[in-house]
TrEMBL record:
SUPFAM superfamilies: Ribbon-helix-helix
Gene3D superfamilies: Met repressor-like
Name listed for the protein in its UniProt record: Ribbon-helix-helix protein, CopG family
The species this protein was found in: Pseudidiomarina fusca
InterPro entries to which the protein is assigned, alphabetical: Arc_rbn_hlx_hlx, Non-func_TypeII_TA_Antitoxin, Ribbon_hlx_hlx
Amino acid sequence: MSVTTVRLQAEVEQHLEAIASRLHRSKGWVINQALSEYIEKHQLEQERWKQTLEAMESAAQGKVVDASEVHSWLNSWGTENEQDAPRSGK
């Protein structure tokens, strides 16, 4: 495990100490948890952005599904005749 020094604003430090105390954990543990969650969230956002760009490119190429097909599919959810997700014709 490596060591990193961080300068914290006084208010952030107070909140950090309160959280660590309440959890009976060290400030380092709380910071590690917070950064791990932040990194995971950032990676998910990056993946969603990548998927969005891919979807926009796909739509620009005409690879789309008619709204009525999507509505029909959604309306079938939870019924005995649940449909498979519609696919673009291209």
